[in-house]
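Researcher: I'm preparing a figure for a lab meeting and need a structural model of a single chain. I don't have an experimental structure, so a prediction will have to do for now. The sequence is pasted below. Please return the structure as tokens so I can convert it later.
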Amino acid sequence: MSEETENHFDWQQFLRRWQEEWIPGEDDVEELAEGGVTPADLALAAPPAAEEEIAAAEERLGVRLPPSYRRFLGVSNGWRLDGGSVYRLGAAHEIDWFGDPFDMTPAYQKGLTERSSEQEVLLAGMWRRALQLETDSDMSYALLDPGDTDEDGEWALYVYKGWSGEFPDRYPSFRAYMQRMYQSFHSDRAHDPGFVNDTTRALDADVERAREEALSGRWETARELLTEAHRYGRPRAWGMLQQLAALSHGGGYHGFGGLVADPRYTGELVPVMAAAHLRDERPGASPRRFVLGTATDDDVTEAADAILARVRDGSYRYAPDGAFGEAVAEAWESARWGDTDTAWRLIRAALPSWSPPGPDLLAPVGLLGDPVLGPVVTRERGLELLATPRAGRTGPVPDPVPDLDPPGLCWLAETQRWNAPYGSYRCLWVEGAEPEALPGLVGEDGGTGLTAPPSRPAGWFPYDIGQRDDSAPWEDRAVVAVGRTGSGWAFGFDTAPRPSEPGGFFVSPAVAASRDGRAVVLWVRRGRDDVPAVLHLSVAEGGEELYAYTLRGTDVERTGPVPEALDPELVLHAVDEADRERHLLAAVQDEFGLSLPRHALAEGVLPHLTTRSWNRAPREGESYAYVTVHVGRRL
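Model: Understood. Here is the structure written out token by token.
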């Protein structure tokens, strides 16, 4: 803020509007009723200070006061703050140096290090040089710091609440502080039906304008309008603003305010809140209470509890009405088995047909609460959604964001992928089979079949090897994510196999899976230290193994006639060690037309299946060795 800008700020108009808009708070009404005070006693403003009074204060203090505070005194020599912990700002003759009476400086200086920021250094020195403005407060202090200034000569203002144990709040200038207090004054009264004035009417018009801007795809303009309206506590602003934050993955998500109490929005907003609630839960911890953040009637509360249960067990589906709902259903079927790019293209094409169930819904936020579709709406896609005109509005359409899934299998060889423990992964593909058929082909005996996609707590790793509950040490049951490739193969992918490799007891599940067609098994364990890399490939058809090989370093064990296109000695001829995995993956994908959906695997969109053991039991005369490691605290 330049001094020229400050000179154009009309303090008289600003303070007069504030005074005229003031209405008594509950405490004021009580005091007036008891006769202890008069309306004049509760006036916010004071008579202006003469230039001579301001100059006298400056001479006494030995400094020239900062521009915005000086001009304020010339309009109102002090101010009563109705709300907060600072009750009154003193007149020019009442202000004085703070002097650090509580010896705060040593405590703040003790916390400084060579990595401390400039702001931390300034705060540590503020206490002894600050000018104290308040004359009445709840153990709180309004302090102007002449050592913390900007290019226009403004001093930062700190408000320290002595009872809070927190760092003081900083405002870049006295004017910024007063404008924030004015906003707080409005916010405190925003839900009072009698609090209506030119300011509230203008802000509510801005909220309505923001709604139109958002539906027309101009969401950033809408966000600016709603942010300002929210600072003044306008009732509709927060719920709308949080919808934009959720879809833009802007962080700071805290629910949707009073909107969740409206039954029209329950199906859109509560699932998003439920998904966020579950992401914050920690494995093994007791379930936390699901808080909607606003008062709701029994019907909404019961609906919210039911939605939470369905989001928790993965059975919730986002199902809006109309043409958009039909597109969402089709997209869900695509995303269900891993084709998230097609799913997003279907949603994108249908966005113009989306229509809100009520005036305060800006976009199909409910997508984010669906366990399958929520991960499809990445930050980039959420921004594309927000920039797309909808609900009958017109305007420019944003460029489509690129697809997320690379073709084929070679992306698995990327070193900086969403890596698995031990650098291992294994996969089974079955040609022409539906994903639902995999439990009958390779599922564990007595198993539950396909389960819902996993919930994703914060800091989540896709596949927890702790899920395995092996009943015998030789068993190796895989927990695989199940889906379908674009070429029509069902697959089961295990991103966290045990750190072992295909050994003497290994039985490829390709044999059992190939009952009605071809099946392929690929198992990769990357090398580390002095342990060589291992790659296994086995192919079966009609319940019989056609061929297989296991490559350990440069040694190959093979059975059956391996086609030249897959023969590791031919595929890897003159290939550097670093490129061996990529070349073998390319050979497999080209031979069978195989692929895997990176985004669906990384984000846990897919259902899970626990397979039968990939190892057989030791036969009579065979031994099986294993090591159990217990990690405990040294006494």
